[in-house]
């Protein structure tokens, strides 16, 4: 196991308790005296800060480079529109750029034979960094209506402290922002519920991450008598890292924006056991 692994906490759908698991792991590791950093990659709806209540130290704007065409230099050859995989340039008499579709890949500027394209930065959000006690904290906030989450997620992860265990709180689902979060994790912890929807979305997530060759483990949150998730995990050779019981007091504590450990000490043992299982998988 690496001294400071990166662990992504993900889920096939929202509302499974992914952030609860991530913040409590951060609190547990900090209480054990380990160096840990929580990175909220759920940039459309970051909410780990509500519980960890970090003291923010920096806020930095993040932008992506988008092309600007100098119409006087442009010969209307159309090569920039041809090379753009994202249909962010349409050829009329001159190229018309749609900045909100641009992924900032730079290909159009590279192919322009007359150097008529320069780049300017388009702001997509901010990265905020700070601390909660000894826990390092970073989160991204995507501008409202902004579709380009992956570059902001990469900017959050660029603030990773190499001398701390990193916990990436992933967006829910299986789309590009999730892949951007999970890509360089050493382990993916998939949080799910024992419901047909939970099982369905877990299977989608497993199908997404397995081709990436990522080690994975499953946390069954609000576990009850329904064993279909556990049966699926057994069939798929996925370790079940923890079964966290359905406990109304946890939801009440969570609703107050408090850490479960602070109210319910027995939950510390549960997360202790979860971390031991995670270490076995690293
Ligand atoms: S930078 Fe890339 S994505 Fe953006 S317009 Fe140019 S080719 Fe398209
Ligand atoms: S590649 Fe350059 S010259 Fe050709 S249409 Fe685009 S901006 Fe104009």
Concise structural overview:
This protein has 282 residues and is α/β, with parallel strands linked by helices. Helices cover 34% and strands 28% of the residues. 43% of the residues are buried.
Describe the structure.
β4 and β5 form a beta hairpin. The mean pLDDT is 94. The protein starts with 5 loop residues before the first strand and ends with a helix. The protein folds into 2 domains: 214 residues, Rossmann fold (3-Layer(aba) Sandwich), CATH 3.40.50.300; 45 residues, Alpha-Beta Plaits, CATH 3.30.70. The longest helix is centred in the C-terminal third of the chain and has 16 residues. It is elongated. With 282 residues, it is an alpha/beta fold. The strands form 2 sheets. Strands 3-6-7-2-8-1-9-10-11 form a 9-stranded mixed beta sheet, sandwiched between helices. A two-stranded antiparallel ribbon has the order 4-5. One iron/sulfur cluster (SF4) binds next to α3.
């Amino acid at each position: 196991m690496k001294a400071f692994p990166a662990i992504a906490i993900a889920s096939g759908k929202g509302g499974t308790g992914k952030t609860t698991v991530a913040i409590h792991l951060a609190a547990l590791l900090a209480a054990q005296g380990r160096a840990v950093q929580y990175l909220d990659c759920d940039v459309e709806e970051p909410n780990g800060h509500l519980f960890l209540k970090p003291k923010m130290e920096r806020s930095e704007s993040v932008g992506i480079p988008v092309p600007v065409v100098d119409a006087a230099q442009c010969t209307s050859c159309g090569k920039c529109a041809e090379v753009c995989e994202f249909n962010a340039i349409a050829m009329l008499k001159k190229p018309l750029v749609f900045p909100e579709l641009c992924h900032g890949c730079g290909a159009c500027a590279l192919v322009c034979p007359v150097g008529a394209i320069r780049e300017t930065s388009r702001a997509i959000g901010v990265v905020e960094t700070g601390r909660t006690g000894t826990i390092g904290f970073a989160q991204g906030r995507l501008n409202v209506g902004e579709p380009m989450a992956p570059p902001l997620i990469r900017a959050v992860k660029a603030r990773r402290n190499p001398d701390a265990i990193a916990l990436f709180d992933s967006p829910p689902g299986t789309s590009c922002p999730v892949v951007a979060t999970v890509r360089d994790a050493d382990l993916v912890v998939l949080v799910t519920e024992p419901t047909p929807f939970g099982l369905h979305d877990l299977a989608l997530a497993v199908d997404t991450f397995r081709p990436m060759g990522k080690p994975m483990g499953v946390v069954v949150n609000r576990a009850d008598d329904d064993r279909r998730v556990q049966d699926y995990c057994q069939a798929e050779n996925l370790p079940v890292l923890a079964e966290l019981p359905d406990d109304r007091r946890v939801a009440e504590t969570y609703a107050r924006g408090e850490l479960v450990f602070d109210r319910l000490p027995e939950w510390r043992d549960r997360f202790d056991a979860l971390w031991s299982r995670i270490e076995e998988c690293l």
